[in-house]
Amino acid sequence: MDTVAAFIADPTALGYFMPKDDRQALQSALPGGNLLVAFENAWKAGSEKDKAAREGK
Questions:
Q1: pTM summary value
Q2: Which terminus of the chain is more solvent-facing, meaning fewer CB atoms within 10 Å of its CB: N or C?
Q3: Residue pair 17/38 in contact by the 8 Å Cβ criterion
Q4: 4-18 per-position pLDDT tens digit
């Protein structure tokens, strides 16, 4: 229930499951592909936040 509540409280997490390009769209059609797409998008978003924090933004 905590996970469901977290998704409701922060809907941006659900956005990680949305493909960002054609490669991800094809990848999401594979079994388990949605999880790989979500992991990649979350990884990139986290990396961008870390980079911004290092640069003092």
A1: 0.71
A2: N
A3: yes
A4: 777 667 667 778 889
